[in-house]
Specification:
By secondary structure, the chain is α/β, with parallel strands linked by helices. The protein has one domain: Rossmann fold (3-Layer(aba) Sandwich), CATH 3.40.50. It is 25% helix and 24% strand. It has five helices and seven strands, in the order H-E-E-E-E-H-E-H-E-H-H-E. A seven-stranded mixed β-sheet has the order 3-2-1-4-5-7-6, with helices on both faces. Helix 2 links the parallel strand 4 and strand 5. It is globular.
């Protein structure tokens, strides 16, 4: 039986479905894309998956801090829920910027309030605020950052992460927006 989507994933997918429309065409990198989640949603000439774990069978298996690709190769980059796993997120963003073509777009998402979700080969180091993302992407020409989630979705999301039999309520609770707190962010930046 397939497990229910988390509240965080429901809200993230809503935001990303809008952002992904901005990167149709060209060569697209899915950085940290072990599941190739967006391959069928993007019309592009080439979809390249980068992941650190060779078990995920990526097209490029490497550390995101040092990517063996020529400068300016990709037309667009997607890096969803990746930066919190980077030991040096500033270096990771610099490297992603290096391999992005001038005028290219990068879509990044990060959790802000989410349970620890590190694994042996993929540790969980950071949480980024709106201001933190703005600082990380300051060398890009343009950046738009939008938050998602709320106090209610954050609290209930943390509860259902530990009490899985309540997951069936995630769809319902993802619709409730109480408070100005954001549980995650999506950034779209142009080089």
């Amino acid at each position: 039986m397939k497990s229910a989507k988390s509240i965080h994933r429901i809200l993230l997918d809503e935001k990303l479905s809008q952002a992904i429309k901005e990167i149709q065409g060209g060569i697209v990198l899915d950085a940290g894309g072990k599941e190739r989640r967006y391959a069928n949603q993007i019309k592009c000439s080439k979809y390249v998956c980068l992941d650190i774990n060779k078990k995920n069978k990526p097209d490029i298996c490497c550390d995101i801090h040092k990517i063996p690709v020529k400068t300016g190769y990709f037309d667009a980059i997607i890096a969803t829920e990746v930066l919190e796993h980077c030991y040096d997120p500033k270096k990771a963003v610099e490297e992603l910027r290096r391999i992005l073509k001038k005028g290219g777009k990068i879509i990044v998402s990060t959790p802000f309030i989410l349970q620890y979700h590190g694994e042996k080969d993929c540790l969980d180091y950071w949480r980024f605020s709106h201001d933190g993302l703005k600082e990380l992407f300051k060398d890009f020409n343009q950046i738009e950052i939008t938050g998602f989630g709320s106090l209610s979705t954050g609290v209930f999301g943390l509860i259902t992460a530990k009490i899985s039999f309540l997951n069936f309520l995630n769809g319902f609770f993802s619709k409730i927006r109480l408070g100005n707190l954001k549980t995650g962010f999506v950034a779209v930046a142009t080089k």
